[in-house]
Amino acid sequence: MTEATPPPALRRPASSPVVRVLTYSATRLFALFLTVVVGIYLTVLIANMGGHVDLIKRTEVREAVGTAVGMDPVMMALPVEERHRRIAELVAIEEERLGLHRPFFERSVYFTRDALMLRLGFAERMTSDAGSRLVRNIILERLPPTLLLFVSAQILLFVTSVLWALALSRGYGSTMDRIVIALAPTSAAPAWFYGIFLILIFAVVLGVLPFGGMVQAPPPEHPVAYALSVLRHMVLPMTALFLASIFLAVYQWRTFFLIFSSEDYVEVAKAKGLSSRALERRYILRPTLPTIITSFALSMIVAWQGAIILETVFNWPGLGRTLFTAIGHFDTAVIVGITIIYAYLLAVTVFLLDIIYALVDPRVKVGMEGEQ
Fold it and tell me: Mutual orientation of helices 332-360 and 104-116 as an angle, nearest 10°?
């Protein structure tokens, strides 16, 4: 007995590729947006210690007003009750200016809304080098040094590890292969750990490289001399980032390439007489391209988030050191602002990876191909 075919009017028409892509993209964007909202709101709660920072700020406001009143002869000449009333008025005005007169839950919701719209407001204690208290200006001033250092280090690390791993996969079991395997556990130490030893060796003992900073003081006026000074100051932090990850990255990629090189279709290609370069390009690198792209993109975000201690060790004027300073000063606006930048970078990276997957990997399908 055959199954009855539904009449044409009851069949669900297959959606066009453009509609499937737009629907999938909108769904992914909405899911990522919700993730960013939750992450930022949790950051607001943590940065304010659940409202405890507001109590600290109220105490600081009362202390500041009390000190100012105590140094004002006119205020001190007033009767005690009048002076206390004036102090209470000044405290209320300052708390209203800082938004402390509203409940913490209400403030956290408004803070999250403004943060999502990149209305980051003013820093409470920190300023940019130009003297601005706008959080946006502070972040824009500190973002380029972080991008310069960590993007350069990650590109160097990525290219070196992939090429080195390909060479090791061709010479499985060689002396260099065994050396890399033996040195892979050294990547357990963070970059700042290697940075301290590099400073001791090359800055303190040998004196050939600077202790830290981004450029010599005073900065050179000529652009070429300025660029050379920046490159000289980048040597030690880039080397620390490189040493902290290179051996483990090479070991991981080498194992990954060995797995793919043992597939049946690679053996067939070898039997056809293809060169090793052609085998690597067509049958090893091409299938691993989605994983390689994912590893490179996510390593960027992870590297920027790990910049706090490294930039502090090398006195590098980036977002990491700024975040460390903001945490020490309880400057909530700056903490949330930097976290927002990281959150948006991560969300955009994940969204772009979804699109790139559909382009480089034919096995990935966007949406449903249509139902009969």
Answer: 40
Q: Is the pLDDT of residue 236 over 90?
A: yes
* Residue from 153, 190, 185, 135 nearest 313 by CA: 190
What six digits make up the tokens of 280?
């690597």
Phi, psi (5° rounding) for residue 366?
Answer: -95, 110
SS3 122: strand
In whole angstroms, give the CA distance from residue 350 to residue 348. Answer: 6
Helix (H, G, I), strand (E, B), or coil: what is residue 134? strand
pLDDT band for position 369 (cuts 50, 70, 90): very low
In the chain, what are the domain boundaries? Answer: 48-117, 142-331
Q: Are 304 and 150 in contact (CB under 8 A)?
A: yes
Q: Are 75 and 86 in contact (CB under 8 A)?
A: yes
Spatial neighbors of 19 by CB under 8 A, at least 6 apart, are none
Residue pair 148/319 in contact by the 8 Å Cβ criterion: no
Contacts of 122 (CB under 8 A, 6+ apart): 133, 134, 135, 333
Dihedral Cα 177, 179, 180, 182, nearest 10 deg: 120
Phi then psi dihedrals of residue 349, to 5 deg:
-65, -45
Q: What are phi and psi of 127, to 5 degrees?
A: -140, 160
Q: Phi/psi of residue 122, each to 5°?
A: -115, 145
Helices (H), the chain: 17-47, 52-70, 73-76, 80-98, 104-116, 135-170, 175-183, 191-198, 223-261, 264-271, 276-279, 286-305, 307-313, 319-329, 332-360
Number of residues that make up the chain: 372
CATH code: domain 142-331 is 1.10.3720
d(CA 337, CA 344): 11
What pLDDT, on a 0 to 100 scale, did the predictor assign at position 364?
55
Q: Is residue 318 classed as helix, strand or coil in its secondary structure?
A: coil
Beta bridge partners of 134: 122
Lowest mean per-residue pLDDT among 32-36, 110-114, 214-218, 366-370: 366-370
Amino acid at 269: A
